[in-house]
Write a structure and sequence with these properties.
There is one protein chain. Helix content is 30%, strand content 26%. The strands form two sheets. A four-stranded antiparallel β-sheet has the order 1-2-3-4. It is α+β, with helices and mostly antiparallel strands. The N and C termini lie far apart (50 Å). Helix 2 packs across helix 4 and helix 3 packs across helix 4.
Length: 149
């Protein structure tokens, strides 16, 4: 078994595995590819895994600067949905009783409009949000008090 640690090129690509510097044909010859990405000075990143004998995966990982270890935070897509949901609820907590279109919410959060629209729809299906026409609001009981989560 052989493990080769290599760098990625500076230019971004649609497929993260296209970022592996491939002038020597490393990506084509490898049975397994692992790419770690993160923003500069961030402790959280994504680990992309592509294997010949297993399903492709994308994990969220977190670096602990005290132990110099990375730990898995689970499936990256599920974690991203959790972050979107938390951000949406934070907006409603700051302005209970307000109504927002998904596009308004996406603009306020600087997030993808389609992602926010889907998550607000899911939250309404789960009873976390109430739909009023085309807008969403945080549910209130009959006294007008904001329901706790």
């Amino acid at each position: 078994s052989l493990m080769l640690v290599h760098h990625t090129r500076k230019a971004a690509a649609v497929d993260v595995f296209d970022e592996i510097s491939g002038t020597q044909g490393f990506p084509a010859a490898a049975d397994n590819l692992v790419v770690l990405t993160r923003s500069r000075s961030e402790n959280e990143g994504k680990l992309f895994l592509r294997c010949r004998d297993a399903e492709e995966r994308e994990l969220s990982v977190e670096f602990n600067p005290h132990t110099f270890c990375w730990r898995s935070l689970g499936d990256a897509k599920k974690r991203e949905v959790g972050k979107v949901k938390t951000a949406i609820l934070d907006v409603f907590k700051c302005s209970p009783g307000s109504n927002y279109w998904p596009s308004e919410m996406a603009d306020m959060l600087s997030m993808d409009k389609q992602t926010v629209r889907k998550e607000m729809w899911r939250m309404e299906q789960d009873g976390l949000l109430k739909k009023i026409g085309d807008k969403y609001s945080w549910p209130a009981d009959e006294r007008g008090d904001v329901l706790p989560l």
